[in-house]
Amino acid sequence: MVRFCGRLNDNIGGIVLEKAPKNAKYTSPTIQKEVLHILADRVRRTIREEVGDAKFCILVDEAQDASNKEQMSIILRFVDRFGILTERFFEIVQVPNTTASTLKKKISDVLSRFNLSSANLRGQGYDGASNMSGGCNGLQALFLKECPYAYYIHCFAHRLQLALVGASSKEVSVWLFFSKLSTIVNLIGCSPKWHTELHSVQAIEIARMVTSGERDTGRGMNQIGNLHRSGSTRWSSHFDST
């Protein structure tokens, strides 16, 4: 974090960490996280000032991170005081589950913390999963009960995904490819032995590519991952599975 800030200013970058006392370099993970939280909070408060008293929409999606924890992202969409349509990434929240009631509470907590009234909510953008789009107990329905003008729009990217999946499934060669790919993922996923062998092969291949210069090296790079299942409702999941 400190070195990154140094790269933004040549005068500071040339001496960063050189003259700092050994007991006050502020480079420990705990301090770094605290600094990031302070900066993130400042950014969110600036966004809140941008929104002002304007009506706004929320764009929400959730996904598992690398540690298999559910994370929910919240984006605000509004017209600023200059009449410009603006989108701002506002918050990412860890959620214990993805039920509509849990997501509703977490979103409401974030809005309340920054004094954003749900009465000013004029739109909701989610994917088409039942917990989000359900007309009776989905997330969009829960917000509509509080604010009847918070109209729900099915995410265009996910709608495009559904259209592409539907169209490509009519092409026999494409359908056969993803059918076989899905079978491979299921077979390897149900056998710990095959899963371990896959990781061993991946490690050998990554080492070969690094040695030959086909891959760069660096912290957090070239990690061994798991196979991904393709799904008609998950944006880019077919690309990820290949």
Short description:
By secondary structure, this protein is an alpha/beta fold. Helices cover 48% and strands 16% of the residues.
- Unreliable parts: none
Distance between the termini: 34 Å
The average pLDDT value, as a whole number, equals 83
Oligomer: single chain
Helix content class = 40-55%
- The succession of helices and strands, N to C, reads HHHEEEHEHHEHHHH
Report Rg: 23 Å
Task: Give the count of helical stretches.
Answer: 10
Strand order of the largest sheet: 3-2-1-4-5
The beta-strand count equals 5
Shape, principal axes of CA atoms: flat
Please describe the biggest sheet, giving its number of strands, its sense, and whether it closes into a barrel: 5 strands, mixed
The proportion of residues in beta strands is: 15-25%
Label the structural class.
alpha/beta
Describe the fold and architecture.
By secondary structure, the chain is α/β, with parallel strands linked by helices. It has helices at residues 2-7, 10-13, 29-51, 100-113, 130-133, 139-146, 156-168, 172-189, 192-212, 237-241, and strands spanning 56-64, 70-79, 85-94, 121-126, 151-154. It has a five-stranded mixed beta sheet with strand order 3-2-1-4-5. β2 (70-79) and β3 (85-94) form a beta hairpin. The chain is flat and about 55 Å long. The two termini are 34 Å apart. Residues 223-242 have a biased composition (Polar residues). It holds the Pfam family DUF4371. Residues 215-242 are annotated as: Disordered. It comes from Heracleum sosnowskyi. This is Zinc finger MYM-type protein 1-like.
